[in-house]
Protein 1
Amino acid sequence: MRPIEVHRHEVVIVGAGLAGLFAGLHTSREFDTAVVSKVYPIRSHSGAAQGGCAASLGNMMEDRWEWHMYDTVRGSDYLGDQDAQEILCREAPLVIYECEHLGVPFSRTPEGKISQRPFGGHFSEFGKGPQKRACHAADRTGHVQLHTLYETCVKQDVRFYSEFFTLQLIFTDNGACRGIVAWDLRRGGLHVFHAKAVLLATGGYARAWKVTSNSHANTGDGLSLVLRAGLPLEDMEFVQFHPTGLYPSGILVTEGARGEGGYLLNDKGERFMERYAPQKMELAPRDVVSRSIQTEIDEGRGIGGKNLVHLDVRHLGEAKIMEALPQIHELALKFTGVDCMKEPIPILPTAHYSMGGIPTDTETHVLRNSAGEIVEGLFAAGECACVSTHGANRLGTNSTLECCVFGRRAGISMLKYLREDPCLPDLPQDAAEPARQRLQGLLEAKGSESAAGIREILQSTMTEKMGIFRREETMKECLSTVKELQERYKKVGLQDRGLVFNTELMEAIELGSMLDFVEPIVVGAIARKESRGAHFRKDYPRRDDQNWLKHTLAWKEGDSIRLDYKPVVITRFQPEERKY
Amino acid sequence: MIRTFRIFRFDPEKDKEPRYREYQVECPKGSTVLDALNEIKWRQDGTLSYRRSCRHGICGSCAMTINGKNNLACESQVETLKGVIWVEPLRSFPIIKDLIVDMEPFYERLKAVKPYFIAGTPPTDKERLQSPEKRKLLDGSYECILCGCCTSSCPSYWADKDFLGPAALLKAYRFVFDSRDEGTQERLVILDNKHGLWRCHTIFNCAEACPKGLNPTWAIGKLKQKVIREKF
């Protein structure tokens, strides 16, 4: 192995999706900023976001941030922290305008304003009528935001280390984070990045499921870094299943398709949402729609009795489809051979989004415990973080929004911190030792287990046993499978022992990340004896505010997970029953 | 159905020369070339190296040459490909390992055209206005995923490695024809030379190669017209 190279930057950002780039945009105005990403920035999964980014601009009809907040609070099944949710909705117009000023090519209204469209869970006047709140660029909103932010970072001379895989966080003796260790995938070799502030913006982790909308890269590496550093993760049991993934792969079909007027149909041709959400129908929040679809399938009303239903957009007409949903037309045609102008699209719910993650305060400081003590020098934003704006269930178009709002806040928060000129002590000699050992171990491992084989079992187990509907017994089976796979992982062996672009090594490290963070998901879900948002238990089908209106915190301690809880921040809206 | 894949292999740490290796892969209906590569990597040969991420044609990672044509592996349906399926790295980019090429020269060309929004002070608390008609001028360029299929397929780029190439020029179009952007003059200076617009000989390989159905040759034509109009 090459000698370890050491770099020094004032800010190091891990991850180059919307949150990481938004932060880098702000810090690079004053401080030397580096972005370390395991993929080239524009390959990040933010680019796959389709439908839109919510903000109460009121360009198409009257809207107010308070209405947006009410929808977000109710959508979160009251588990979101309302201080964070208020910030999300209040600052939404600001970040959308900032995106526009940076050049994002949004679709436009006839008057030339940013075009907005309806989306599930977003309403006017505190949950009453329909609302057009999703700012969009056709159905390629994440793509245009990601490219624009990257381009602006290039303009501002942000230093990018692309195709560098982060393996470890570096802390000082008094617990402040002062850097990372990363593996240069292309050349092979460890790099230490010494920094005053580190931001984790590593994205989501739905690759732990077999049927998923997520990129291969979404393996939750940032969460594993935090767990391994002895820090907690929050609300990991809340994982969103998007109602409309293409059958059978789970590739995303935007909720914008229903926002524009698409119907969901079962084998009998019924718009079955009438039974589950008679008022809001297909535009009820995602957890509600996914459960409805799964119920239809489980009760034998899937198309041809199989594991799918239909999404029908034919009645929107060719012009509307090509203007508002061109990518959906392309995806359905390329991946299922269905021309959505002539036939309905076969869909099934797909693992999509992680509401939980690295606990932070509203200034994006990573939290150490339920008392809210911060980890100095360490920040987190975007899907890997849990601030918590989404609580038990995220509304569509609130994720790219969260990346922008809290990515921006992370940038500003780090600016404030750096202006205080925190000290940067010399690195200990052996700062990179844990990463080096882990890597060396994998490169020399002669075990008989294949990472791909273990991953396949993990993914199908999570889809079968940690899906939309959960039960104590199956979750316990899931936990014992996870434990067994963690043991098998210790005996993993690689065929590729090279240093240059060893993607087999990368996949093995990613599997290690997944085996780390799935355990708190399962343990947290078994412990939470209620149903709330995306966490639905057949054995405890009701929400239980008396006992469970609280956030889960989970630490990895030895071979087990320790849980603790902290209260939910409630400011404006008291919990009430959720009906759509 | 079992299909034969003949795949370009090169390990810079072991091989002096590249070679081809054949694999037999069970490909159920609906399989893509990326599915087949994954099948090989995960069950037959862990050393096979390629980039991939989103697997639905938006991240642009898995561009490669499949039966002689550039495409995204994730969007290439196996059943549309005849005979033995040849999989090779993108042409004209330096090869790092197997199907992974060095994209840096490609990204560097892109940076040369100032691929970012250049504009004066925006309104303080609102968006800039842009009519739907003016916004429509960006259709066919803003969708580019920078996969490299076009530039790699361009004979002019093969002959002139200083040529900006179709992807960078399409990016330039995206800003020059954005009614909000004010950087047209400085960009046109960069484009108006023998390694810029004028190296394009309207061959249309780029348009044929683009997995997103975009037409860089057409956009280059529009930029050429713009340069001429501004000059005379």
Note: Chain B has a mean pLDDT of 96.
Protein 2
Amino acid sequence: METLQRFDELKELKKKIQDFDSLVASIDDIIFEIRNDGVILNCWTAEPNQLYFDKDYIINKSVKELFPSEFSDTIIYILEKSFRKRTGYSLKYKSPFSDNIDHWYKLQTKIIKNRTESLTVVVTNITREQKLLAKIQIKEEKFNRAFQNSSIGMLLLSKSLKVIEYNQELQNILDYANAAEMLEKKVPEFIHENYADHIQSAFNEVKNGIKEKAIIEAQCLAKGDKAIFCLINISSIRDANGKVVYFLCQIQDLSLFKSNEAKLNQQNEMLEQMNYELKVKVNQLESFNQILAHNLRTPISNIEMIVNQIAQENDNDQKELLLNLLKISNNKFLRLFDKLIETLDVQITNNYLFQTSEIDEIILKLTKDFQHQISSNSLTIDYHLDVKTIAFPTENLYCIFKFLITESLRKYQTLNTIKININTWQMDNDIFISIENNCESQRSYEIETEFMKINENIDENFLMELHMAKQQIQFFGGTYKIFKKEDVGNKVVISLPKSK
Amino acid sequence: MDAIKVFLVDDDSIFCFLFQKLLDQHSNKSIELIVFHDGYSAAEYFRKNKSNPLTYPDILFIDINMPLMNGWELLETIYNEDLFKSKNVMRYIISSSISNADKHHRNKASDYIEFITKPISNKDLFSIIDNITLNNKS
């Protein structure tokens, strides 16, 4: 009976040993039982290759015998301390053997309950973890170097936009002498109020994954609330679950760029102005060429025709008439020539390009010019001016207005009262000027039959000025159109660009 | 001799007078000259008489540089509003000078437009009149 009991106990013990071996086999670590003098009493491992020595060789051998002295002294010291303090210690170390120098291990001493003469030492191969750690450290170092030594401002923010870290360049940009001073502030305090909403929405877009990064031009506030134009690049640092942990901002000072941009814009404006002046000059030269060719050649060609007529004419009265026309043509030519020289002198400068006209002043002048007709009720001048100042030379507008009123009076003098209506208005980028009369042809149209009466007093200079005024409208990029308003009268509409 | 209707649009009254003098020397005494001193007046006349081809000219002489509406603007109005809708009226641009811009205008304009430069001689004018007379007969 007792034998049977012992047999059962032995059987149970064997099962426990089997269980223990299975347990050990499932552990990657090496487990030693070591005595307080450093002698290895036992050893378990699932991978005997990890042991470096044969298992039987190391049992009952001292640590000092197995390992180089420098390493074994450290182990003995830890063991002694663990026995003395009755607590476990750990040590990370590189393999003391030269042929696997790149292997890392972690040694942990563990006190065995109710035993004072031996303890357990667990050795874990941590080579993989150490390599990962080294990689992480390199990455961290790279980031730190890039962050701290960047030539643009770098700012690390918490997800609630609190300043965590920034580099020296940002401190310089924002003109803070004391580093801690910036840490006390929150991001909105560094942003000009005009851009606060814009910046906040950019952070939200990055946070919500709408954008991977947001690049914004905004004014930052340096020390003393000095506004500085900066280019801000916002990106996020996320954890393994994709949640934002930090925001990273790159901040570039655009002050110099902005100043250069302003200079460039100024230079561009100057170039545009010069280009405009040159274009106008070229157009004017063409126009003067045309005026020279037409207006000056007209009396000259008339003279030639008159001379031919005189040569063929037998009637003395007609000869006298032709001689008179010769005189008139000659005078016209001289007057036109003088006028043209005078005009060229005036227009040789560019001043008139940037002249403006006050329409109400022009109307006042016209009212004085036509005072006689207004007083005798043969003319009224009404106006409605939405735009009073127009970027166009006064002389030219005055010339057009005066011609149109004069023509209305001349052609439609049978009407009781000639009503002139002047309006100005703006539409999009153009200014419009309209001059209307009430000269509906109440008569059946009379063909001009009075051309035989040569009027010496016709002001050819005035017609040339009118011609030039019309040309000027085109030079300024405008148009000149004449319309018939059925049952109302005639209407001239001039459009001019709002500004040059 | 067949009656010929000649229209002249020119703001220069001396030229208009001399033009009439030249026409007076033509053997055809049935030439009727009608003068307009600016393009706008001529356009108004053509509009009013658009539906009556009998009032159309046989030849239209137009100066370029005129106040209100210049020669090219008048030609554009005639073309756009089809003011001579049932007759091919020969049109002459008559000017003391023909610039490149004018030639450009001519190329863009419709047919039946020719240039004639001032001063004009009776020979030039008669040649045009005679051609029209011949065309009218044929």
Note: Chain A touches chain B at residues 286, 289-290, 293-295, 297-302, 304-306, 308-309, 312, 325, 328-329, 403-404, 407, 411, 441, 444-445, 447-449, 451-455, 458, 463, 466-467, 482, 484, 490, 492 (CB under 8 Å).
